[in-house]
Amino acid sequence: MADASIDIASLINENRIGRFQYWVVTLCALTVFLDGFDTQAIAFVAPSLVKEWHVPREGLGPIFVASLVGLLVGALTCGPIADKIGRRKVLMACTFLFGAFSIATGFAENVTQILLLRFLTGLGLGGAMPNAIALTAEYCPHRRRATLVMIMFTGFSLGAAISGVLAAAILPHLGWQGVFWIGGAMPLCLLPLQWIALPESVRFLVLSGAPQERLRAIVARVVPNFAPQPGARFGSHEIASAGMPVAHLFRDRRAIGTLLLWIMFFCNLLDLFFLQNWLPVLLGDNGIAVTQAVFIGGLFQFGGVAAALATGFFIDRFTGYLVLPALYALGCALVLLLGQGGSQTTMTVLTFIAGFCIVGAQASANAHAAMFYPTFIRSSGVGWCLGIGRLGAIIGPLLAGLLLSLHWPVASLFILLSLPLATACVAVLIMGALYAKGRTLAETLTAATSEPAK
């Protein structure tokens, strides 16, 4: 907007983070908490389905994958939609979808019904995450953006971890159905709070030409002590280019970065969802009681929470190009160690550290992607990263099921699954060589996304 006298991004960047911004982060964290709970629920009820419905172990693969296909479709479609109509509307619609269909899953009577309902649940789950990330990023100053996006993402990890803890408590009393009923009721209860208190992204509103009165009302909450001069208008130095948002992921020097991000997300989520879905089952095969196996599986996500809280500062300070390779390399080593098995205590410790590295790397990659793309395509950029990543999330559980049906040794399976993390490590190192140029991540990507299109 050429006539703008107050740049909205600069105003946010130059001021301290206030109560209103923390409230936005909290609401997004609550949404992804419930997203994580419902995404992970199927893994923790899987052992019960094996016993109650006599589903063979390798038959769990399609059940795991059904919601992941929905997640893929939801991420690929809802991101571009949100870049056109707004993050808030899409986030609320997705919350309703995954809540309603999760409840319906609790009434499934056979495998076919559960496959369909988990796919429909996945549509909402997949669309919620990129918009929560984009909304959080767009209310945060660039110097703290990675930290707050990662703190927000801890909601997902906590939800997935608590899903295991609650599942262990619910299963003896309400059965596997109760896990889905509770998991679906919570997002529906959150909807009224989202409707009342969740704002639209102020950066999106500026680029979409929202009325100045609406922008002034939001700015007054973001920066309460700021008093614009009479007649001043809010605008943005960013350019909202016309056309399909997905096409812009490959323009203005973003093409190689986009492809490398896709590789990172694909590889990381392949291993993450393999461990998320199969670890409780494999622990049970190793002689660990079902409730203990579920509990240990939950620790995988708690490790991710610890990583998100610990590494956000270092990404903002030292760039993701230094932090992410370390997480990927250490995660690769932990996958190899998990494949060797061990005592219950050993597996508990290894699972927690693996979660720190692998789930923590995913939280870091989310922040990395949110900082790489400008506002007008941020939901599309993050959504497509997550969508491509879901292909890995689908392949991981399916590949594990196939190889187990072929009687692959568990150690060999884990050796194979260490390779994607090594690949992700190489991808982020290449991206750093191309884009960092000695600057901090915030400085590099703020400059890249604020330059006019050429």
Describe the structure concisely:
The chain has 454 residues and is mainly α. The chain contains 15 helices and two strands.
Q: Secondary-structure blueprint of this entry?
A:
Layout: E1 6-7, H1 8-14, H2 19-52, H3 60-85, H4 87-105, H5 111-138, H6 145-197, H7 202-207, H8 212-222, E2 234-235, H9 255-285, H10 290-318, H11 320-338, H12 344-372, H13 378-405, H14 410-435, H15 441-450
Q: What structural class do you assign from the helix and strand content?
A: mainly alpha
Task: Compute the CA-based radius of gyration.
Answer: 21 Å
Q: What's the number of extended β-strand segments? A: 2
Strand content: under 5%
Q: In the CATH classification, which architecture applies?
A: Up-down Bundle
Q: Could you state the order of secondary-structure elements as H and E?
A: EHHHHHHHHEHHHHHHH
Helical content class: over 70%
CATH homologous superfamily grouping: MFS general substrate transporter like domains
Mean pLDDT: 83
Task: Return the domain count.
Answer: 1
Chain oligomer state: single chain
Task: Categorize the overall geometry.
Answer: globular
User: Which spans have pLDDT < 50 for at least 5 consecutive residues?
Assistant: 438-442, 447-454
Any idea of the CATH class?
Mainly Alpha
Biggest sheet overview: 2 strands, parallel
